[in-house]
Write a structure and sequence with these properties.
Layout: H1 2-15, E1 22-26, H2 29-34, H3 42-49, E2 54-58, E3 70-72, E4 75-77, H4 83-94, H5 100-114, H6 118-133, H7 140-156, H8 162-175, H9 182-192, H10 196-209, H11 214-227
Parallel strand pairs: 1-2
Antiparallel strand pairs: 1-3, 3-4
Helix pairs in contact: 5-6, 6-7, 7-8, 7-9, 8-9, 9-10, 10-11
């Protein structure tokens, strides 16, 4: 165990991240529909709690009834439905070192997701953003997620300020430009604020950073061209 820890530190010093292997995360459409907000967000959840792995989306892992599912070194792990479960599985299977601050932040964000009022959502997200900002560079992936969630509130609630949402989204794209939703959220906010040019730019960045969404982005760009 000590030798593995020393190797982990050595790799971190050289590459800035200690890659312990690859985790494959089921992103089958049926599973994502069966476990809404769990399976589809699982790649991002794992990115938020550890950077020790290559994380890849994969097709069906043939354990649909027991999902969401991940595959670690050929071993299927089922029921990965929260950050805490993901952290426990990674610690057991791969001796992963999970940052307790990031895990706690993810759990508070899960509470925000489940909250039923705007004030409760904002309170939880504000606490996460305040805590993670103290070590922004170290916690940037998780912080970006919290900022995106707070920015989304500006789109979902009429009494949430769009200006704050815009600030959050613009900050999030700097922290984590590879986030699957950040450019879409920014584009929607810019469009709601009447900034068509900025919305188009954000959509183009979305396609650039997430090529798998290129077809969807092109449809949005065509729609926007009819509005401008």
């Amino acid at each position: 165990m000590m030798l593995k820890f020393i190797i982990l530190l050595f790799c971190s010093a050289i590459w800035g991240v200690a890659c312990l292997g690859t985790i494959k995360v089921c992103q089958n459409k049926q599973c994502c529909r069966r476990f809404p907000g769990k399976a589809s967000d699982l790649v991002q959840t794992i990115r938020q709690i550890t950077n020790d792995y290559n994380i890849e989306s994969t097709g069906c892992l043939s354990h649909c009834d027991d999902g969401p599912n991940i595959c670690i070194d050929g071993k299927i792990e089922n029921g990965i439905n929260s950050a805490a479960v993901a952290a426990a599985v990674l610690e057991i299977n791969k001796d992963a070192i999970i940052n307790p601050t990031l895990l706690a932040a993810c759990q508070v964000m899960e509470k925000a997701e489940q909250a039923t009022t705007l004030s409760e959502k904002e309170r939880n997200l504000n606490s996460v953003i305040s805590a993670l900002t103290k070590q922004e560079e170290e916690h940037k992936i998780c912080l970006a997620q919290a900022l995106i969630m707070r920015a989304q509130l500006g789109l979902d609630y009429t009494d949430a300020p769009l200006e704050q949402a815009q600030t959050d989204a613009r900050r999030a794209v700097v922290l984590d430009p590879q986030h699957p939703n950040v450019w879409r959220v920014l584009a929607d906010i810019e469009l709601d604020m009447g900034n068509s040019a900025q919305a188009i730019e954000a959509l183009q960045k979305w396609a650039e950073n997430q090529p798998k969404f290129a077809t969807k982005v092109n449809k949005e760009l065509q729609r926007l061209s009819l509005l401008t």
